[in-house]
Design a protein that fits this description.
Elements (H helix, E strand, L loop, with lengths): L10 H11 L5 H6 L6 H8 L6 H15 L2 H16 L10 H16 L6 H13 L14 H6 L6
Helix pairs in contact: 3-4, 4-5, 5-6
Amino acid sequence: MTDGHSWRGNWKARLYERVRERGYDSLTAFAEARPTASWVALAEELGPDDVAGVQVYDGLVAEAVRSKQVTRLVRGHLVRELWGSLPDGWPAMLDDDNRFRVAKALGLWSGIAPETHEDRVRLAGDALLANPPPAGWRPLGPDDELLRRLLPDDEA
């Protein structure tokens, strides 16, 4: 989208209107029904010409802060990046091509992590690289056992 239409008017109201039109009471519920879809895919489903992926992410962060579920959102974001960058799951060997794919997923994940979680995200990424998961591992959502060990809930 090059004309910036997604930013015109009250985009937050439009975003939530679209979510409600699809039968969800929150953006979080909408996104969690599609745990492996990218932010862009979610935005396209809500409005291909007037919702942007960053708007979906922004709304999800706001909801996560209010509900004290930021860590869960962060885990969910990693799931989405892994599915986008590693369609066959975690590689058995980190050759140059696979190393790039893993770095891309981890970089996209850490690049927009909420400031409150930047250190934890970096440490979790380092842990994944130091002790790789089994070949083919692809978490299905934010409650994946390995992800919960890497980033346990800590919000009160």
